[in-house]
């Protein structure tokens, strides 16, 4: 299946993002994008699962591993299924060469955010963690549009798919335990 062209709102929001391209914020958007995957999200994913398993929190560790790892596999499969080309609206300072839909950075950062919030659900950390991670996830998503490597709909799809996947994993793990 090949995805259709971008919806109108994609081009409108990409146009807004393009206004800042080449400005003083470019290095910050590039840094945030890198923390949204290879410098932040992926190492934290691995460290979180390892820490939970080292602490013998088997169920939480397994939930985290399945949610985080499964999200990455789901993203790769969806990219192949939809085969949407990357935007070519302006020259990117961080070009990508894989398919665009859904955004892996958006999906990975949202999955990690949900996993952390769900693990902290019954603690006082839940709300501040959710607020901080919401800002991070939104920043990562906007950075991908600003860098010209994703349409906004790629980011929204990544967030939606990550949310559905992580919540489904959580429900499956809760159901298997019989506890809340």
Automatic annotation (TrEMBL):
Pfam family, one: PAP2
SUPFAM superfamilies registered for this protein in UniProt: Acid phosphatase/Vanadium-dependent haloperoxidase
Catalytic activity: di-trans,octa-cis-undecaprenyl diphosphate + H2O = di-trans,octa-cis-undecaprenyl phosphate + phosphate + H(+)
EC number: 3.6.1.27
InterPro entries per the UniProt record, alphabetical: PAP2/HPO, PAP2/HPO_sf
Top class in the EC scheme: hydrolase
Annotated membrane topology: Multi-pass membrane protein
Domain Phosphatidic acid phosphatase type 2/haloperoxidase residues, every copy: 60-170
CDD domains assigned to the protein according to its UniProt record, in alphabetical order: PAP2_like_2 (cd03392)
Transmembrane segments annotated in the record for this chain: 35-54, 61-82, 102-121, 128-149, 155-173
Keywords: Cell membrane, Hydrolase, Membrane, Transmembrane, Transmembrane helix
UniProt-listed PANTHER family: DECAPRENYLPHOSPHORYL-5-PHOSPHORIBOSE PHOSPHATASE RV3807C-RELATED, SPHINGOSINE-1-PHOSPHATE PHOSPHOHYDROLASE
Protein name: undecaprenyl-diphosphate phosphatase
Organism, as annotated: Luteimonas colneyensis
């Amino acid at each position: 299946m090949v995805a259709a062209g971008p919806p109108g709102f994609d081009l409108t929001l990409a146009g807004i993002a393009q206004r800042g391209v080449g400005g003083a914020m470019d290095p910050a958007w590039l840094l945030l994008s890198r923390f949204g995957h290879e410098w932040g999200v992926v190492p934290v994913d691995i460290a979180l699962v390892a820490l939970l398993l080292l602490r013998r929190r088997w169920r939480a560790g397994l939930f985290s591993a399945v949610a985080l790892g499964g999200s990455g596999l789901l993203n790769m499969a969806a990219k192949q299924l939809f085969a949407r080309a990357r935007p070519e609206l302006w020259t990117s300072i961080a070009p990508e060469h894989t398919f665009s839909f859904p955004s892996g950075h958006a999906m990975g950062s949202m999955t990690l955010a949900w996993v952390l919030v769900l693990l902290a659900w019954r603690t006082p950390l839940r709300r501040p963690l959710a607020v901080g991670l919401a800002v991070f996830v939104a920043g990562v998503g906007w950075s991908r549009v600003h860098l010209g490597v994703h349409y906004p709909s790629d980011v929204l799809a990544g967030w939606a798919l990550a949310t559905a996947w992580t919540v489904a994993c959580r429900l499956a793990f809760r159901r298997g335990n019989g506890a809340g």
